[in-house]
Design goal:
Oligomer: homodimer
CATH superfamily of the largest domain in chain A: lambda repressor-like DNA-binding domains
CATH architecture of the largest domain in chain A: Orthogonal Bundle
Structural class of chain A: mainly alpha
Largest sheet of chain A: none
Order of helices and strands of chain A: HHHHHHHH
CATH topology of the largest domain in chain A: 434 Repressor (Amino-terminal Domain)
Number of strands of chain A: 0
Strand content of chain A: under 5%
Number of domains of chain A: 2
Chain lengths: 154, 154
DNA sequence: CCCGGGTGCTAGCAGTTGCAAGCGGAGGAG
DNA sequence: CTCCTCCGCTTGCAACTGCTAGCACCCGGG
């Protein structure tokens, strides 16, 4: 049995080529997904920014987030890399979405297109995971093409 | 200009057939697995279901995900709680979205029921009308296929 | 029989997370 | 001045993650 990853990738490639041929001018650029490894200390900076923007002390955020204040301190200064659970708790304490923190932490990709569409596809129960992957790949290709041909003002 | 509806339908049909041909056996096995429809409470179960649905050995997934095979084994059996980084790696190895895994892990809230993917695509500024139509057709084809293979899911 | 390679699982170890306890400093009440 | 509370930070430790090495089992070939 082949590697399923390659399998899906092949499917997507085939889809893209087919659509490309019949539908017109699809740019060839198919950038691979950005690596997870870019876990930066920017999470800590982000948290601290959000916290001071909300005028909340470290201890208070720690309390409302349900983590210890020393640990939150270390997280904010980049000395510790919090687990996703802690991250989610902190997000709750800050009343921001966990996705934002995950993106900052580099464990969730920021998709290039309209986040609503991406989220809609990803959370659609009527699609298999592999079909989601195909649709998202195709969607991103379209978005890239659209940007290239009609760079709409932001 | 031709009738855009027919144009799109033709293209999508071609796409659909191509994907079907390439995916073929895999689509069958994936659809055969209860994993996609069944909501398991633990990440490990979900991972194992996805893995066996893709007919991949534990060691192979471990290799493609970049984690050790004993650890993946323990994660699948719920003996270890993987960090978000590992979770993201496994998601990449499985070629599924990290969000799905995070939801399974309970570190991301499950999105509300069944979001209106169609509406999201229709209202997406980053897509041309024709691309919207292609995506919508492909989407509906996938939904139909999913319904046929995993009807109602209990 | 005895290898070599495949599957998944167990044991034990370094490195890390995340916490409780405690530090010095700033500010207000007596 | 002393006492108290709050601030953020440092220390030291239990618990955990995630790894390497190795186990038992199964299969096909010499």
């Amino acid at each position: 049995m082949q590697n399923p990853g390659n399998f899906v990738r092949e499917q997507v490639t085939t889809v893209r080529e087919t659509v490309d041929r019949v539908a017109g001018s699809v740019a060839e650029t198919v950038a691979d997904a950005p690596s997870v490894s870019a876990v930066s200390s920017s999470v800590g900076d982000f948290i601290r920014e959000q916290r001071s923007a909300a005028r909340v002390s470290l201890r208070e955020l720690a309390r409302s987030a349900g983590v210890s204040n020393p640990y939150l301190s270390q997280v904010e200064r980049g000395l510790r890399k919090p687990s996703a659970e802690i991250l989610a708790s902190i997000a709750r304490g800050l009343k921001i979405s966990a996705e934002s923190l995950y993106e900052q932490a580099g464990i969730l990709d920021r998709r290039s297109g309209n986040p609503d569409t991406v989220a809609a596809i990803r959370s659609d129960d009527a699609l298999s995971e592999r079909h989601k992957a195909v649709l998202l790949e195709l969607y991103e290709t379209y978005v890239r093409e659209h940007r290239a041909s009609a760079p709409a003002a932001g």
